[in-house]
Amino acid sequence: MDTPIYDFVNDYANGTSVRAHMPGHKGRALPDCGFGDAFGYDITEICGADALFEAKGIIRQSEKNASDIFGTSETIYSAGGSTLCIQTMLAAVCGRGKAFICARNAHRSVINACVLLDLEPIWLYPEYKKGSAVSGEISPESVEDSIISNMDKRPACVFITSPDYLGKIYGIKEIAEVCHKYDIPLLVDNAHGAYLAFLENNLHPIALGADMCCDSAHKTLPVLTGGAYLHTGDRMKISAEELKRNMSLFGSTSPSYLVMESLDLCNKYLAYGIRKDLSETAQRINALKARLSPAYEILDSEPLKLTVNALSCGLSGNDLAARLRERKVEIEYSDAAHAVMMFSVMNTEEDLDRIASAMESIPMPRIRIEPPDIDIMPLKRALSPAEACFSPKERVNTENSLGKIAAETVSVCPPCVPVVTAGEIIDENTIKILKIYSIFQVNVIK
Known about the structure:
Elements: H1 4-13, H2 36-40, H3 58-70, E1 74-78, H4 81-94, E2 99-103, H5 108-117, E3 120-124, E4 127-128, E5 136-137, H6 140-149, E6 158-161, H7 172-181, E7 186-189, E8 212-215, H8 217-220, E9 228-232, H9 240-248, H10 257-272, H11 274-292, E10 297-299, E11 305-309, H12 317-326, E12 333-334, E13 338-342, H13 349-360, H14 385-389, E14 393-397, E15 410-412, E16 417-420, H15 428-436, E17 441-445
Parallel strand pairs: 2-3, 2-6, 6-7, 7-8
Antiparallel strand pairs: 1-9, 4-5, 8-9, 10-11, 11-13, 12-13, 14-17, 15-16
Helix pairs in contact: 1-10, 3-10, 4-5, 4-9, 6-7, 11-13
């Protein structure tokens, strides 16, 4: 497996050319910089370096390597994370001003894409987990019901998030079959699941029948932050060139070469090394879960997540996260009920042992706390997301927002799942949920 982007930049970084081009650091770091070598590898679109959105050379070659590895029809890179991929997917499939079916526990970037493209989301509400606004159950039957009941709107696609933020993997194969029955493409936000293609049982959305998906490579693979993939399946007849034209509408004209180099280098690892390492890592995580049970209630999740129902041992998820932080363990996400840790093949056995020791050292009341009553309900929409976001707005206390129109999407952040989206009318249930997540002020239409 060749690494064309890295090889080109490495030769340039170790050459003798005078850098009479961007960036302004000229390949040299300021004094006392702790990552000085990185500057030498940070370049721009010089001759031979190709260009991400018009890729015909080394970048396109590297993307084809990634496509072969993942088994996709097309794979293109993003240096702007899955956010840029989500915008691109919706632009490519929906165009402008169309309706699409979307699971409500979507990332905020989906709503932002609706604003930019003036799209109409038709919300599909999961059966939420007790005490969570970010995870639930979406059945193939609920998807089919939504498609049938919204045929008059001619939905351009179905969009779901899997795995979700607590690690729930949805039935992609069955949902894809439902979508294809009605000739509707299935798009998947697989931001947390790039590694799923390399399990012994391939669980990647494209392998299971999804038509398009995005992977945040940086979330679970050894790639720099911002590195992501946009994949298409065989049913999606859209060229890489067309995808890149759509991506260029939203992305910077100066995408990071450091990010692209890390994606390029990762290809070799994905082709030759990850499967064994991933298997061993999953075994170590399972051993960690077994060690922590039954002292902690560990929820079912994808292999590289450890999701704890902290309430079962008398703590909130946020309390557990704070106590772990005191013990030098920083976790991915917490809320009133849950604490979530994300792992990768780069975590060592020592890392997992330190986590186990830290969790075992935390004194717990052992009095089970009932989860907060969080039930995301459909809200009335007064304006489209685009109309609301570009209207005059004012900031009010959450308790005074009853009956007002949200001027922007208010999310559980992280991970940015919306409680109320721009253009919806805030009701009493919404106010209650916002307070549970310590959101005490919101922007509303003035």
